[in-house]
Each structure stands twice: as structure tokens, then as C-alpha cells.
Amino acid sequence: MKRLAVLHTAPFVVGMFKTLLGKRYPDLESFHVVDESLIQDARRHGGMVPGIVRRIAQQVALAQEAGAEVILFTCSSTSPAVDTVRRLVDIPVIKIDDPMMARAVELGVRIGLLCTSKTTVAPSEGLIREHAAAKGREVAITTAVDNVAYFALREGDKAGHDAAVKEAAGRLAGSVDVIVLAQASMAHLAAELGAVLPIPVLESPPLCVEGLAPYLKA
Prior knowledge:
Number of strands: 8
Number of helices: 11
Order of helices and strands: EHEHHEHEHEHEHHEHEHH
Oligomer: single chain
Mean pLDDT: 94
Helix content: 40-55%
Structural class: alpha/beta
């Protein structure tokens, strides 16, 4: 099995991915790198400016030098940068959201996109449209951004974050066919929301981890 590097911009998702990867691939050798400055600067500049893309490219190069044979980015906001850095290395560089967005456009044409960071909106909307086009489908995207949830989580207020996400999901549910939780930080709410809302609610981490299987084969 190939060695995996997992690159994060938020420390609180590291444990989640270690658990998911350990359960799915018990023999996998992997290492995790966290750089919070990437998402902080993306929020400050409104997206992936050239300086941030260069730093992400450096992270990828360092991970490959450390022996990574596959690289996974767990931050949705870095999606446009991943498109760039993929061309700079000869190993797979995977976006966390690809499997989830592919599944979303299979489930409906009215997609509800729930974000807690505005930097996630454009990359996530673009990825949905990319997967819809690949399947020959036209979709309508309704996006909700809840900054209250983002800042609550950043301050360690998990209960406040969860309450804000649930409220936002409830508002979306009446006008869409499926809700996409656009950041891994919301993934723990997917099952609870799916049990009370009348539509599917998708989370990226488990779909992403399962989607790594063909890339990890030796």
C-alpha cells in the first residue's frame, strides 16, 4: 500500500481522518501536516491568491520529499490551488470533496451548499458544476454561508457551531434535493441532520476516504 500524506488547514480534523483512515486501511502508512496560516490568509485575501498557491505547492513538494506517494488535501477552500499543483508533481494529489460532489449531482439537480467559511463557496460551487457537467446534468445551487458557526468553532464553542449549522441546514432543506456539508468540520452532524431532514445530507470525509482506495494500491 502506498504512503499517504494528509495536508490540513485546521487541526481539529486531524483526529477524524486518523480514525477513518485507520479503520478503512489498517495497514496504511500515513502522516499529517497542518498549516493554519493557509486558511487564515485565504480568508484575509478572499481566496487562493498566488502567494498561497506557492506555499501549497511547497507543502506538496515537501510531502513528496518525505516519501508520500499520494497526497490528500482536506480543506475545501484549497480546491483551486490543487488544480494548479497537480501539474507540478508526478503523484496523485486528491481533493477531499470530489467523491461527495459526484454523489450530490447523482441525487438531485437542486443542490444545497452549506458553508461556514466564505472562502469555500466559489471552490465548492465550481466543483459541483464540474461534476454535473461530467454527467451531462444541469444543476441549481443554493448556497448558505454561516460565519457564526465558523467563528464559534474557531473559539472552541462546538455547541454554538453545531446549533448554527443545524439552523442553516433546516432553512435550506425546504428548497433543495440534497444538502452538501462543504467542510469536514461539519461532518459529525451529517447523520443527525439526515435523520431529521426529508432529504439526503452528505459529508465529505467518509466518501473521500473510501475514494482513496484505487490510489493507495501498491
